[in-house]
Amino acid sequence: MTPFGKFPDRGLEDLGLEAVLAAVDDAGLHQREVQAVYAGHARTGRLLGRENGVGQLVMAAAGVRGIPVTGVGNFCASGSTAFREAVMAVMTGLYDVVLALGVEKLSVRPEKGKPLTSDGMELEGEFGFTPPAFFALVAQAYLEKTGASADDLAQVAVKNRAHAEHNPYAQYRKPLTAEEVLGSRMIADPLTLLSCCPTGDGAAAALVVSDRMARRLDRKTVRVEATSLLSGCGDPTATGGFEVDRKTAHAAYEQAGIDPGDIDVAEVHDAFTVTEVIHYEDLLLCPPGDGVKALLDGQTALGGRIPVSTSGGLMSKGHPLGATGIAQVHEIVTQLRGEAGARQVERATAGLTHCAGGFLDGDVAISAVHLFSV
Amino acid sequence: MTPFGKFPDRGLEDLGLEAVLAAVDDAGLHQREVQAVYAGHARTGRLLGRENGVGQLVMAAAGVRGIPVTGVGNFCASGSTAFREAVMAVMTGLYDVVLALGVEKLSVRPEKGKPLTSDGMELEGEFGFTPPAFFALVAQAYLEKTGASADDLAQVAVKNRAHAEHNPYAQYRKPLTAEEVLGSRMIADPLTLLSCCPTGDGAAAALVVSDRMARRLDRKTVRVEATSLLSGCGDPTATGGFEVDRKTAHAAYEQAGIDPGDIDVAEVHDAFTVTEVIHYEDLLLCPPGDGVKALLDGQTALGGRIPVSTSGGLMSKGHPLGATGIAQVHEIVTQLRGEAGARQVERATAGLTHCAGGFLDGDVAISAVHLFSV
Question: What positions does the domain Thiolase C-terminal occupy (chains A, B) (predicted)?
Fold first, then answer.
């Protein structure tokens, strides 16, 4: 992957190329050995006039043509969706080496400093009901229900920034205190600026290879144990929480035959402080209702029972939509290979990524969970 | 599929829903039996603010949630790409019933009457180098090389419109004469208005099912023999023609073990009159250089050796980008089932669809070929 950040002088092909070359170099392969590509991006059409052909553009820059290149989009989970399609392409038996690419460039947005709105939510966004506003309501309901405080939630930002200090790819790496988080500009009560993930530019790539090819590579490989993706499951009679994330995670655990208790490290969709703790519960990383407890006990910090967002998460790494899901894969693979340096989770053998996105008809539009093991 | 045309009062979900319900009804299934969806669209982000979530929107309208829904985009071949992904999803063994959906609404374009430009070609388009201008150069080179005339090319439009007369889904069904084609407004010499496909609104859907499910259905099913998709293969030293289409077709024939001579009916990407005859050659439906001969001999008309564009093609049906590739599948399936009525190709047992799109670095960005049999 590329470092995430704001790179006014770099284009999609430039960022994507760096990620692609890093991925093939890491595997000891040449980019011409890639047999198919899935490229995830979520806002390149509306921002850069590239609704189609982002993958082709990047692969042409890498000198690769004449292979299947498919663009996929699924809101903030576009990268996760590209990764899933790469896994499925290998599962068909048609290919041994498939590249998942995620790339996004958000620093060109004309409405700088304003939160992104989701496709189909422009009217709501125009009147202020943006994702931070929605998740502020989620946070208020969560605090009301659990008795936790805004100060507790701020610990997510503090923890993730402490993790980011050791990640050279993270956009923000300076440690934060809870006072700084709570004292930053108020966006939507109780979410302050530092309770929300920044956007940014960046790219990430992952090679998915067949068992046969994995055996040939002179590199420690990580097994994809489950790929689970579900669109909104909204049930108007259901109450509270993110049902779609729960169902997606359940399906992943079932597919893999892995118990949630066996997960050693996870990257979850911490777009806002509150979402991370809710996701601990949805993804069965802690008992229902115990999200804040798991956080405050240090269970989800480095050195704890199940470190979450060891990369710094979206909160510190930034959230270049299409790249995010594959950057999560990058972190989990790095951890499971034991190559995470100062942020290494000891004896990590099973990991999880979770990315969600979009709104549709009163529900989350898409949720993706992947499970990995060594 | 829906009829193609201009439907100012209908939205993406409305058009998509009609296509989805028609597809599941035809199979004798209920939409809740669909296990995964791939939705192809190419311009919904820039025109309608829906770069993500078109598939989710349509499936929610159909009352279906909680399944994997993935958006795919690949220029004019977005629908073909969605179909290919559906085929591959069934190939993984994870699903028995996967829906490919293509939907597009182009009648909302602010620059009505002007040709669409391809992503990444906006600068060229601004100065007039639009797809019709490019294909006019292609046509001039082809006429120069083959000694054919503009009058000969016009016969593509005449033939396809004659086919369209019998297709209730086609946007234009009134028979045309060569005089009318040549006498219509000049767009880019030698391509007149009626030598170019119209755009439009529409949706198409196809159910891809496993062998196991096919046996359970009380409906004649058609076998997908090959799915081939390649991005531009441009070789600056190569001369003439569309190398990527040739390579994509070769790969499809090889995958299927089908000889080009065995194809009984084909839908090719006749975005312009000249492209259809060139595609006869690229797709090996006739010997190299014999495209015009095949056309003028009536080999590719209904009743001929290998009828092409029996649906009326893009030329008469219209070209709502994301829907086009799946509408081609609709026609071939209808033909191979023997349900095409007045436009039925007798004893058709093998069919081909071909869709291409986009430009990139001096080459076609994507080409898709599917082969089918009964």
Answer: 245-361
Given A60, A92, A358, which is nearest B361 (Cβ)? A60
How far CA B169 is from CA of B174, B203, B265, in Å, comes to 13, 11, 18
B134 torsion bin: left (phi>0), alpha (psi -120 to 50), beta (else): alpha
pLDDT at residue A316 greater than cutoff 70:
yes
Pairing of strands A69-73, B69-73: antiparallel
Do residues A76 and A321 make contact, with C-beta atoms less than 8 angstroms apart?
yes
Give me B285's structure tokens: 């439906």
Give the closest residue to A354 by CA, choosing from A317, A287, A309: A309
Write out the two tokens for B15.
């058009």
Pair of tokens at residue B12:
């993406």
Instruction: Report the C-alpha gap between B316 and B168 in whole angstroms.
Output: 11
Residue A53 and residue B120: Cβ atoms within 8 Å? yes
Measured CA to CA, the distance from residue B368 to residue B354 in angstroms comes to 6
Q: What is the pLDDT of residues B342-360, one digit of tens each?
A: 999 999 999 999 999 998 8
Facing residue for B60 by CB, picked from A118, A119, A360: A360
Q: Residue B70: list chain A partners with CB under 8 A.
A: 72, 74, 81, 84-85, 229
Mean of all residue pLDDT scores within chain A = 94
Q: Which of residues 161-190 of B touch A (CB under 8 A)?
A: none
Domains of chain B from N-terminus onward = 12-109+201-216 (3.40.47.10), 122-184+223-373 (3.40.47.10)
| Residue pLDDT, tens place only, A207-254 | 999 999 999 999 999 999 999 999 987 765 554 568 899 999 999 999
pLDDT in tens, B97-151: 999 999 999 998 877 778 888 888 888 888 888 899 999 999 999 999 999 999 9
Residue B42 touches chain A, beta carbons under 8 Å: yes
Percentage of chain A modeled with pLDDT above 70: 98
CA distance B248 to B251: 5
Q: Does B237 touch chain A (CB under 8 A)?
A: no
Across the interface, whether the CB atoms of A88 and B93 are under 8 A apart is answered no
Residue A146: exposed, middle, or buried by beta-carbon count in 10 A (0-12, 13-18, 19+)?
middle
Select the residue from A52, A116, A117 to test the B interface by mutation, using most B Cβ atoms within 10 A. A52
Is residue B76 flagged as an active site residue?
yes
Tell me, yes or no, if A102 comes closer than 8 A to chain B by beta carbon.
no
Give me the residue from A67, A73, A91 closest to B52, CB to CB.
Answer: A73
Q: Give the integer Cα–Cα distance in Å for A351 and A257.
A: 13
Question: Does the ipTM exceed 0.90?
Answer: yes
Give the single-character DSSP code of B5: B
What is the token pair recorded at B166? 């019998």
Strand boundaries in B210-349, DSSP class E: 223-231, 265-267
Mapped onto helix, strand or coil, the DSSP state of residue B91 is: helix
> In this complex, is the C-beta atom of B252 within 8 Å of any C-beta atom belonging to chain A?
no
Residues B42, A52 contacting (CB under 8 angstroms): yes
Q: Do A69 and B93 touch (CB under 8 A)?
A: no
Quickly count: other Cβ atoms within 10 Å of residue B2's Cβ.
Answer: 23
